[in-house]
Amino acid sequence: MHLPAYGSADPARTYYVYNGAWAFLSALAFTLSMVYYVRDAGLDPLQMVLVGTTLELACFLFEVPTGIVADIYSRRLSIIIGFALIGAGLLLQGLVPAFLAILAAQVLWGVGYTFTSGADQAWITDEVGTDRAAKVFVRSQQISLAAKIAGTVTAGALGLVSLPLPMALSGGGMLLLALALAVFMREDNFHRTPRAERSMAETFKDGLAVARRRPVVRTLVLISLISGLSSEAFDRLWSVKILHFSFPAVFGTSDPAFWFTVLALVGTLLALVTSVVLNRLSPERLSATHPNGVLAVLSLVELSAVTAFALLDHLWLALAAMWVRTIAGTLAWPIESAWLNRHVDSRSRATVISMVSQANAIGQVVGGPPLGAIGRTSLRAALTASGLILTPIPLLYLRLRAPSLSGTKSSVGAD
């Protein structure tokens, strides 16, 4: 089925708007979601873990199939379906504070996310070209960070009225975003695979061949896997460590919900300021055609920050380390995304990007439970292990050498 666009908007502007809307709405939904799970839904620690596991399994199972759909039929249609499913999942989660409903919501939201993952990057790269994509990714990241700040503040304000309110509003907003994209989003440079040539198996094989043949793609898949092995435990356990500290009273309250909103705001604001400053001072580094050096440095900074967070016993020093990790990851994402897209053909672009995301999901599913088990005995050991797992990543980036000038054309196909 082909979904026609009744309006027509500049692709880069469309990408900025919907990424800003996505950042705002996701911050609205997730800033206080953990508090909602405990206070309104009454989830115990085991149920909290199962919620996260369900989400990751949904992403793992559907990441590549939905990427293939985007490559065969339409990236635009895939994105619209994705936001509709995400909106339905968030509405269900916000309106029904029960464990089984929340599990079902994770499946909807996880499958919806896989429809957008890979498809959005593939769509904008096709529409603006690989040369312009790097700048678009950086600019989009900055807009998303600003929108995330607004969403976090709004979630904190609405959460004082009702914890499920921001989540339900976010779900409704996602459905409206899907409708708006159906009207205004255009897709001029994607050519649907002819019916006689449509084969999900062949598209998957093409994507797998690209991932195996091209060193940049192969290495980024491995890096994504290693990142996943580390990130699941850190993302679940950093809040546990922070809650061990005593928060100072501000405006008459030391409620963790208030402080977690503040911490999210500070981290996002620091990442936004750093991105804007670096883009002004050294834009060529953020849009380099072979940015292995800058990515190696950023990954080393992230490794050091995670390890420091694990070892530090002072609240503000630990928070500083966590914010440094956030900044490094925020700066690396658009650079790595543009680099990956330059080394993938349009025919299998969404599939390959989905493979990179699936590698991360595999890492989270495999790495999370063992590190979580370690965390039951020693939180510091689990967090330290999360940092040490990242050790190979800077070396993997440095191993990737820039292609020779004489073989630029051939290097794209076999570099």
Automatic annotation (TrEMBL):
Q: Does the keyword Transmembrane helix apply?
A: yes
Keyword match Transmembrane helix: yes
Listed GO MF terms? transmembrane transporter activity
Question: Which keywords, in A-to-Z order, does the entry hold?
Answer: Membrane, Transmembrane, Transmembrane helix
Show the InterPro entries listed in the entry: MFS (IPR011701), MFS_DHA3_Transporter (IPR053160), MFS_trans_sf (IPR036259)
Recorded protein name is MFS transporter
The coiled-coil regions, if any, are none
Tree of life domain: Bacteria
One Pfam family this sequence matches: MFS_1
Q: Where are the transmembrane segments?
A: 20-38, 50-73, 79-105, 167-185, 220-238, 258-281, 293-312
